[in-house]
Amino acid sequence: MGDGLDLRIAHISDPHFESPFFSEELARKALRKLNNLELDLIVCTGDLTVEGLIDEFKRAKEFFSNLSTHSKLIIPGNHDARNVGFEVFTEFFGERWKTLEKGGIRLFGADSSQPDLDDGHIGRENYRRIHNYLKDAEFSVFALHHHLVPLPKTGRERSVTVDSGDVLKLLVDADVDLVLSGHRHIHWLWDLEGITILHAGALATRRVKGREKPSFNVIDIGKKIVVHKVVVEESETEKIFEKKIKRK
């Protein structure tokens, strides 16, 4: 791999606009922080809404329209698929399955939601196109809403991606570098089989686990991948991960 990679990504998830726990103050602070960062791309891994309703999508659209970063990859979560919200999502944010190539990095955004169900699902019919799109990339990123691996401090295991074992195998076979997801409202990182699996905390809702705080991730990709956790209501950021990028 050459030295041409140079990209800064903000990874956000689960703002849940207009939910009873949604905070306008958090949304304003998150917007300000995101706009003060020199970002090349923003990836949102779903749950923009709480019930998949039009007014919730309108508020989400307003937020994303006020972000100064032009390039965005936004995919739905299980809450966005409620009440036929999966159709409304496309009116505001385009296709639910997305691909994007930027700065030598190839991203695949998958819709792991199912209408009116909380469980995640990718589906055998999608495996080949995911593998073929990501397999030869200089650096590859797979984004989905649901978690592929159980997370600590989230209680009883539920609403996992039901075909997570098969999905993990195809990602390993495709030599994927980074997986981004959300769903459980907790920041966490696993590094398994050469894949960095990064979860974002909830962005703008007070419905978080224990003493977890609303947060998002900033990922710098160059000769190394460096991940910082940004707590929305704190001034300091925390570097939580760094590793040299494998050559392909």
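(the above was protein one; protein two follows)
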Amino acid sequence: SVAHPNEDLLEKDEAMLVINVARTLLHYLDAKLG
């Protein structure tokens, strides 16, 4: 089946959100432990 453009955009937004959360968490841990 062909995905709707909105669903594709949502997947990209969710991916960016996960990446941003991971980066924030890594920066937090680095500051906390370092």
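Reviewer note on protein two: The chain has a mean pLDDT of 89.
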